[in-house]
Specification:
Elements lengths: L1 H15 L6 H17 L1 H12 L3 H27 L2 E3 L8 E9 L2 E5 L7 H12 L3 E5 L5 H12 L7 E3 L4 H9 L4 E5 L2 H13 L4 E4 L5 E4 L5 H13 L11 E5 L3 H14 L15 H10 L5 E3 L3 E2 L4 E2 L2 E3 L17 E7 L2 H10 L5 E5 L3 H10 L4 E4 L20 E2 L5 H6 L1 E9 L14 H13 L1
Parallel strand pairs: 3-4, 3-6, 4-5, 6-7, 8-9, 8-15, 9-14, 13-14, 15-16
Antiparallel strand pairs: 1-2, 2-18, 7-17, 10-13, 11-12
Helix pairs in contact: 2-4, 3-4, 3-6, 4-5, 9-10
The structure holds nicotinamide-adenine-dinucleotide (NAD).
Nicotinamide-adenine-dinucleotide (NAD) binds next to helix 7 and helix 8.
Length: 457
């Protein structure tokens, strides 16, 4: 505890020295971070394979590549992001100019989740450093090899007063949360998100909460069924379904349901999402295997359903004839189980979705513009895709985040910079002119003029 306290004090002293305000300094740190990741690519592949058998191919495409893109983008654009922004000036303040100065918040705490351990911890740190903050990073303790490798490569290469990794589980995170930070960025479950939010409230610390939820996928026609199924199956079973924005369940027009299920099964086989293959990872721990096994109603399994606690493998599983009352529909699945719910009335299923917590994502597969607009208009969710699933996360021109129980705030690209910044508003007045209107005496004539001017604004 004493160590953590003095670490935060040293980061505060460093932040107050103004060093992180320099854009050149930020770029230098980001370049160093990229070099450190590049130099350790093989170690990063090995560590994640040791934790849950994620292959170098998948690790590169879903973790390292995203970090490189975020770093390169920040290096290229941070000067512009951090620059003064001109703003308009209203008539009441004439003559004056107005502008906004982005400034770093200060000492930030980033708490990561385990399912994409590099992207979800180092990704926010890139945004924090680009915005001129110092960083205390607490990766998830569950993938032990990645957690200790992240600590090793960051702590061996960065000044702890700027960027320090603190490893640990619940007790260590609780200790961190007892201390005062200027920003907390949390990725994880809704329940822990609440704990973080309450801890942040003690110091009125701003938060970004990247949480989870049940993300629906709508199949509304079969105009492009082969491509719908291909994309949806990949998005669901990649990382064995342990993706916060994975399509949690499918809502399919009743007349298309059998066709969808048949094609989904054949696509799982074609993509070789199976125990023997390098694109199929382990479930993170025994607790989660058992949690998943309790969700499945064995009478409704149409594909898969097998699992092995020791090897932590859960087969890709499809369950059919599911209703909103089934066990699998009561919590986020976060695993390779795909429930299929068929519907006759789109209005009815939209109402069912809206009666539940706002999802992190929503996916709409259709060529029908009206139906697409209807869903986009009626359902509130964090972000999503039309005719694809999960790929919006890879476009850093889009803010990534939830709404309601699926999260607060967003990041990626400039949105990450914004979430670690305060936008300081400045009105700079000229001194050559000062109307007497607001000063004593308050006459009836002044009141009339004042009302006229205020109406003009
Ligand atoms: P989690 O909430 O269990 O853990 C997240 C972090 O919180 C870890 O670093 C952990 O050490 C810490 N933690 C756990 N319990 C704590 C407690 N009682 N007090 C303080 N800290 C505590 O989540 P997880 O299992 O790592 O991740 C799964 C969840 O995260 C899913 O709900 C998923 O949807 C969500 N998620 C969201 C995103 C996103 O970007 N929105 C990304 C990945 C995962």
């Amino acid at each position: 505890m004493a160590d953590i306290k003095s670490l935060i004090e040293s980061q505060r002293v460093f932040f107050n020295s103004g060093k992180t305000k320099s854009i050149d300094f930020r770029i230098e740190q980001l370049k160093k971070l990229k070099r450190v990741i590049l130099d350790n690519e093989t170690n990063l592949h090995n560590a994640i394979f040791a934790d849950f058998k994620k292959s170098p191919f998948d690790n590169y495409s879903s973790e390292l590549a995203i970090l490189y893109i975020e770093i390169d983008n920040a290096i290229k654009k941070v000067k512009r992001w951090a620059g003064f922004k001109r703003a308009g000036t209203n008539l009441a303040n004439f003559p004056a100019k107005s502008y906004i100065i982005p400034e770093p918040l200060g000492v930030s705490l980033i708490i990561g989740a385990w399912n994409y351990p590099y992207q979800l911890s180092i990704g926010p740190a890139i945004a924090a450093i680009a915005a001129g903050n110092t960083v205390v990073l607490k990766p998830s303790e569950l993938p032990a090899h990645t957690s200790s490798l992240i600590a090793e490569i960051i702590n061996n290469n960065f000044d702890p007063a700027l960027f320090r990794v603190v490893e640990g589980g619940v007790p260590e995170t609780e200790e961190l949360l007892n201390l005062r930070f200027d920003k907390i960025f949390f990725t994880g479950s809704v329940n822990v998100g609440r704990i973080v939010y309450m801890a942040a409230a003690r110091h009125l610390t701003p938060v970004t909460l990247e949480l989870g939820g049940k993300s629906p996928a709508f199949i509304l026609d079969d105009a492009n069924m082969a491509i719908y199924v291909k994309r949806l199956v990949w998005a669901k079973f990649f990382n064995a379904g342990q993706t916060c924005i994975a399509p949690d369940y499918v809502l399919v027009q009743e007349s298309l349901k059998d066709k969808f299920v048949k094609m989904a099964i054949s696509e799982i086989k074609k993509e070789r999402f199976s125990v023997e293959n390098s694109n199929y990872v382990q479930i993170i721990n025994e607790r989660n295997i058992l949690r998943l096994s309790k969700m499945v109603d064995s009478a409704k399994i149409v594909f898969g359903g097998g699992f092995d606690v020791e090897s932590r493998i859960f087969e890709p599983t499809i369950i059919d004839n599911v209703s909103f009352d089934d066990a699998v529909m009561q919590e986020e699945i976060f695993g390779p189980i795909l429930p299929v719910i068929s519907f006759k009335s789109l209005d009815d299923v939209i109402r069912e979705v809206k009666e539940r917590e706002k999802p992190l994502s929503c996916y709409i597969f259709t060529v029908n513009k009206q139906l697409k607009r209807k869903i986009l208009n009626e359902i509130s969710f964090g972000g999503g895709c039309v005719n694809d699933a999960i790929m919006h996360v890879s476009n850093d021109y889009l803010p990534f985040g939830g709404v309601g129980e699926s999260g607060i705030g967003s990041y990626h690209g400039e949105y990450g910079f914004k979430s670690f910044s305060h936008y300081k508003s400045i009105l700079e007045k000229s001194t050559w002119f000062e109307p007497n209107l607001k000063y004593y005496p308050r006459t009836a004539l002044k009141f009339t003029i004042l009302k006229k001017i205020l109406k003009l604004m």
